[in-house]
Design a protein that fits this description.
mainly alpha, 32 helices, 745 residues
Length: 745
């Protein structure tokens, strides 16, 4: 297989070469994802040496040790909460990063956070994107993502740091399987299954020895203040010599340089006595940690302590400044100052310029303090503001798209006056926010569902439906939309029900679940009819018409498209009219009337152009290309395919690009340029495979088989024909349906 890591084909039983002919691309990026090294890292000499010993010399890429199927070292740092596993792993990683010239990947698996542990598929998606594959090209299936990840790193020397793992099953799909890659995992669990099956080396991190604990405190507070080692040793003992507690205590001492250390120790000793009744010998470390948390928390000024409590309400441990501002009902600048105070006290960690994370122990402690100090009403109001912020962010992403979605847009409520909604300068920055917040958006819907805030629960997925449709996040799409639909039904909100029924219909159609899609579409149409929403009716009729076309029921499709056209003309819905007119053309083309089809498509193109609808223009350009091919006008077909590629690029839509590549390939093959056609078919297959669009993937593979035949490469043609046959047999499609000139996006 020749090509780059951006173009990856996964297949069974394929022999022969796969070549990619394309313009020179920029090299894949080198990921540098490690968080900063730990300030004031102390000792851990034995643990660092144990990690060094567990790491066999990393083989050179391409050496015999690096052959496919040979797994690189896997190392596990286990230990109790707060013992410093993450600090140890990061410090070792920074000391050794030069051994990994192809970069470092890092992920927090949230194994013991209040919310759900991170899904392996999500972590793989982030890794694959960091290695240069756009998110839209990442497959939705976990196994497929794992296979793609292993392919991307097969000849690389990478360090993968997986922090806070829940169990072996969460970790196993994330292992690279390449000899040049090293995986370093931290977990409270011993991960015994990983030790047994993958041969991982385990290093157990223990609490600091007294000398090391004293050294950490002395370094932080200054040797002059810590001249009485007995006092420092007592302070260390009150912290159970746990690094997390030691750093918080040291920071508080350093922040009060004029206060005698003995007074600070007395404060902490008094705080500790409050927990004696709850203590047991087995729980000594946990009680010590809670004591230090309480001691540090009570020292905060009220605005900062309130912010800390509110962070305990956030559904995950990672959050943006804007989300914290919404929780507190303050402006982002004020929130940033409070978060800086909390970071200085080591109660939260800054991940990026406007992004923070709270340790899972502190997250749980903050939630407890919110329950004790604030009323239920205050907490629900804070969460309502937070959900407003996420809903408004989703709406801002929708509104920033370079094309209109008015036909299926469900307006969202105005936010609380205290909330500063996210805003974006352009669509790429909006998509970047969406990708960063993907996990939080799902948890926000679940939170709204638990709180009975039904409007938030349905408005958020309604705003995001087109984002999921355009970017291929099918798992997220179903997970976030189904509870949203249930919430809209509970609240009796017909607008929300119609929007989410249609959204689920689109998700099912795109994943080739036509019967389910029909049920959702018809239910949405019934609601639009009940509400006398004529634009919504025209839109649903158009969707149903294309679904009937996909199923081969051309007579029904013709009648449905005509009903949509009649409604548009009666109600002067000219901005939407181009869609059902195009649908008529698709039916005409499928039933062999190419001249009538071309006339309908040209009319549709004019209507879309007049309406300024780039998405509509793209659809009809593909249809015109296919029609020109069916009538023997290959040069005209190639011209329209090139225009479609330009529009797909303008919209930054990978699914559209894949469909346009198929059209371009067919037009090139028609003028005996099979070598160029093959390259476009292969690029289209990569895109459609990674997007999960199996129908268009099958079309691309079938086209590649024809191109190989034209080039006289009969063995490869036979391989691709078998591949195409297995694909559309699994999809229930007739073989001839893959190249009949009726490809639809």
């Amino acid at each position: 297989m020749s090509g780059s890591a951006r173009d990856v084909i996964q297949a069974r039983d394929i022999s022969g070469d796969i070549h990619f002919h394309s313009a020179t691309r920029a090299p894949a990026p080198t990921p540098r994802q490690l968080p900063g090294d730990v300030r004031g890292f102390v000792n851990r000499v034995a643990d660092l040496k144990a990690l060094d010993d567990a790491l066999a010399p990393a083989p050179e890429a391409g050496s015999e040790e690096g052959v496919a199927g040979t797994q690189g070292p896997v190392m596990v740092v286990s230990g109790t909460a707060g013992v410093g596993k993450t600090s140890l792993a990061l410090h070792w990683a920074h000391r050794n990063r030069d051994r990994f010239p192809d970069g470092q990947l890092h992920a927090n698996l949230h194994g013991f956070d209040q919310g759900s542990p991170a899904a392996p598929a999500d972590i793989l998606g982030h890794f694959i994107e960091a290695l240069g594959v756009p998110a839209a090209m990442t497959p939705s299936d976990t196994d497929a993502r794992a296979a793609l990840f292993r392919s991307l790193v097969a000849d690389k020397r990478l360090l993968i740091v997986l922090d806070n793992a829940a169990d072996s099953e969460q970790v196993r799909p994330l292992l690279p399987g390449a000899a040049g890659c090293v995986t370093l995992i931290t977990s409270r669990s011993r991960l015994s299954a990983l030790i047994a099956r993958e041969g991982a080396a385990r290093i157990t991190a223990d609490v600091f020895a007294e000398h090391d604990a004293v050294m950490l405190l002395t370094t932080a507070i200054g040797a002059q203040r810590a001249d009485d080692e007995a006092d420092v040793a007592e302070l260390a003992g009150l912290c159970a010599r746990l690094p997390l507690a030691l750093r918080i205590a040291a920071e508080r001492a350093a922040a009060r340089p004029r206060m005698p250390l003995t007074d600070l120790i007395a404060d902490l000793r008094n705080e500790s006595s409050m927990w004696d009744a709850l203590s047991s010998e087995d729980a000594a470390e946990a009680d010590a940690v809670r004591t230090v948390f309480a001691w540090s928390y009570r020292a905060l000024r009220e605005p900062a302590s309130r912010m800390f409590r509110l962070l305990g309400l956030h559904p995950t441990a990672e959050f943006a400044v804007g989300a914290a501002a919404a929780l507190a009902g303050v402006q982002p600048r004020a929130a940033a100052r409070l978060l800086d105070d909390l970071a200085a006290a080591h109660l939260i960690t800054q991940l990026d310029r406007d992004r923070f994370q709270v340790h899972d122990l502190l997250h749980a402690y903050a939630a407890d303090q919110a329950d004790e100090a604030d009323t239920d009403q205050e907490n629900v109001q804070a969460l309502g503001r937070l959900l407003d912020w996420y809903v408004q962010g989703a709406e801002a992403v929708r509104a920033s798209a370079p094309y209109e979605q008015a036909a299926h847009h469900a307006p969202v409520d105005a936010p609380d006056s205290a909330v500063a909604p996210p805003s974006f300068s352009d669509y790429p920055s909006a998509l970047s926010w969406f990708r960063t917040e993907r996990a939080n958006l799902i948890e926000a819907v679940r939170l709204a569902e638990r709180l009975g805030l039904d409007r938030h629960a349905w408005q958020l997925p309604a705003a995001l439906s087109f984002v999921y449709a355009d970017n291929g996040y099918f798992d997220d799409w179903f997970v976030i939309t189904r509870p949203g639909l249930a919430a809209a039904k509970r609240s009796g909100d017909l607008v929300g029900q119609a929007a989410l029924l249609a959204s689920l219909g689109m998700a099912c159609r795109q994943s080739h679940r036509l019967d389910e899609a029909s049920g959702y579409y018809n239910a949405a149409l019934a609601i639009h009819e009940q509400r006398e929403d004529l634009h919504g009716q025209a839109w649903l009729l158009d969707l149903i018409g294309f679904l009937q076309h996909d199923a081969g029921d051309f007579e029904a499709a013709m009648n449905t498209f005509q009903a949509s056209i009649d409604l548009c003309r009666t109600e002067h819905l000219n901005s939407f009219l181009g869609y059902p007119v195009e649908g008529i053309g698709c039916v005409r083309l499928a039933t062999g009337d190419a001249d009538e089809a071309l006339a309908a498509f040209q009319q549709s193109l004019m209507l879309h152009t007049d309406a300024g609808d780039a998405v509509g223009r793209f659809h009809v350009l593909i249809s015109i290309c296919n029609t020109q091919l069916s009538t023997g006008h290959a040069s005209e077909a190639e011209r329209y395919a090139a225009l479609a590629i330009e529009v797909a690029d303008e919209l930054d839509n990978r699914g559209f690009e894949g469909a346009a590549f198929i059209a371009r390939a067919r037009s090139l093959q028609a003028v005996d340029r099979a070598d160029e056609a093959l390259a476009y078919y292969q690029r289209a297959a990569v895109i459609q495979r990674t997007l999960g669009d199996r129908v268009n993937e099958a079309r691309a593979i079938a086209g590649a088989a024809k191109a190989y035949r034209s080039l006289g490469r009969q063995d490869e043609a036979a391989d691709f024909e078998r591949w195409a046959s297995s694909l559309h047999a699994a999809l229930g499609l007739p073989i001839e349906g893959l190249s009949n000139g009726a490809e639809l996006v």
